[in-house]
């Protein structure tokens, strides 16, 4: 690590002086692309475990491979020059980030085992409005407002095996969960030029529900179909479950990084980020329907347990959970003078 830092520092000192590494003297349009890798934990792990135990009477394992997440971040920023020595630029930005994870797990009791493998996708879209303040020559601060939209989806294929002394069942199905939310944040950034070409920077989202209150919804859908055998009688089981309600978030994000100017208009950067998003569900409403067809007698029966399922969800789902990501980002930015 020490040799890497010395390498970057030596390059920064030896390159010709174009301008301060993070400083802009005129209006600039900046494009950014970064690869993202690190830890990704979903808020639905604990929520699923609690509902499985209380309503389904199943134990659900901790989600495996939960500490792995990979993705990307795209960004476009416009710095409009104000030609003022203190308030140097207005900032208008748009960014898209995407983080994917895989969460295998099992649910089971003494007569049933259920195997699932969740594929998760966390997408964030941000609109940024801020200003660059040159406090003194190598140091700048960037207060800003950020409108952030979050969309998390989880999908899984599942296999259910039921077995006891008289019954056997093999059922295949799917599950999907989606949570959408948007709100306004106040953020704060800082930049300090170590050399004319090497800059360290800090960025954060600190306060939410600013101008835009957190507002969103979640939905859950599950379907399964398979064969049941009981005392020599064969039946076909079809089950459909659903749930929906409000979905709100709050939290904070902190980032620390360094950027190196490698040409007049190009920078490479490395940063570490911690993003904590607390999620809260309100007024959940659960539904289910089970239709069983007995093949030998050609009889069909239907049952539902909507009331008990909704009561269980209202007990479990409003408990606050969190999405937590700790990632490393390595990328490149390109400035276009306007």
UniProtKB/TrEMBL annotation:
Signal peptide (residue range): 1-19
Keywords, in A-Z order: Signal
Highest taxon in the source lineage: Bacteria
Protein name (Swiss-Prot/TrEMBL): DUF3078 domain-containing protein
């Amino acid at each position: 690590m020490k040799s890497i830092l010395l390498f970057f520092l030596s390059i920064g000192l030896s390159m010709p002086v174009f301008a301060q590494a993070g400083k802009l003297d005129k209006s600039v349009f900046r494009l950014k692309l970064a690869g993202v890798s690190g830890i990704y934990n979903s808020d639905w792990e604990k929520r699923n475990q609690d509902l499985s135990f209380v309503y389904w009477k199943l134990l659900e394992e901790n989600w495996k491979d939960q500490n792995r997440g990979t993705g990307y971040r795209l960004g476009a920023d416009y710095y409009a020059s104000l030609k003022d020595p203190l308030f140097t630029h207005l900032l208008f930005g748009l960014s898209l980030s995407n983080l994917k994870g895989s969460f295998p797990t099992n649910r089971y009791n003494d007569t049933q085992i259920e195997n699932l493998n969740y594929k998760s996708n966390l997408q964030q879209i941000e609109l940024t409005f801020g200003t660059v303040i040159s406090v003194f020559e190598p140091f700048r601060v960037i207060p800003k407002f950020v409108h952030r939209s979050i969309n998390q989806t989880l999908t899984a294929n599942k296999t259910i095996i039921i077995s006891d002394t008289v019954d056997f069942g093999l059922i295949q199905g799917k599950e999907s969960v989606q949570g959408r939310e948007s709100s306004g944040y106040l953020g704060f950034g800082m930049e300090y030029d170590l050399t004319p070409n090497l800059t360290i920077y800090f960025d954060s989202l600190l306060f939410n529900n600013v101008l835009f209150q957190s507002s969103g919804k979640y939905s859950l859908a599950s379907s399964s179909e398979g064969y049941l055998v009981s005392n020599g009688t064969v039946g076909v089981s079809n089950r459909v479950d659903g749930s929906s309600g409000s979905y709100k978030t709050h939290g904070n994000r902190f980032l620390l990084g360094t950027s190196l100017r490698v040409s007049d208009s190009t920078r490479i950067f490395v940063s570490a980020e911690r993003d904590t998003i607390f999620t809260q569900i309100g007024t959940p409403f659960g539904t289910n329907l089970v239709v069983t067809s007995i093949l030998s007698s050609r009889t069909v029966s239907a049952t539902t347990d909507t009331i008990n399922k909704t009561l269980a969800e209202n007990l479990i789902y409003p408990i606050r959970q969190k999405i937590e990501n700790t990632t490393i980002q390595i990328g490149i930015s390109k400035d276009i003078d306007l």
